[in-house]
């Protein structure tokens, strides 16, 4: 397998995952206050939405790369 084929398959898989899940979330921990041994931290849950056009575009680019590189 050459690099172009691996990249094309990765784009297709990423596009399918983007369409299936629509985004992902992560937890960001911030340190707010530290007074001596007392420490107060806040955890914020952030969500990143992936647009539908980005998923479709990734799939199309992967398929196009597979077809052109044959």
UniProtKB/TrEMBL annotation:
Q: Which domain of life is it from?
A: Bacteria
TM spans, by residue? 50-68
Q: Which UniProt keywords apply?
A: Membrane, Transmembrane, Transmembrane helix
Give the protein's recorded name: DUF3185 domain-containing protein
The opening ranks of the lineage are:
Bacteria, Pseudomonadati, Pseudomonadota, Betaproteobacteria, Nitrosomonadales
